[in-house]
# Entry
Amino acid sequence: MTSPSNNHKLRRFEDYLRRHERQLEHTVLATVEQGRQAVAEDTLDVADQAVFSYQKEMLFTQGTEGHSQLGLVRLALERLHDGSYGQCLHCGQTIGDKRLEALPWTPYCIACQEKIENGELDDQLRAA
# Structure
């Protein structure tokens, strides 16, 4: 990937990933702060306590998902800098341009991603 058009494409991916990284950092921090501010009161009735518990669980889930995606974005940026961006972490094949356009942080080609989702392969990043 050293042609001028590929260099331009890589810069575009890097710019997008950097913007997305900043957005995710802000979102994750805001979610953590919301979770800290949400304090259950002893005076809540059972229904209010259930709603409160549900809201806390949603905040936790959002924070976890945001943190996971942030990790993928940072790994994609590392791969951009070490020259391995666009190569599947499992099989080493080139990840398709359309897949990278849709999910620039993806570490796997579509074939390996499908195998992971079907339980045929272990997700190396989740195991780490």
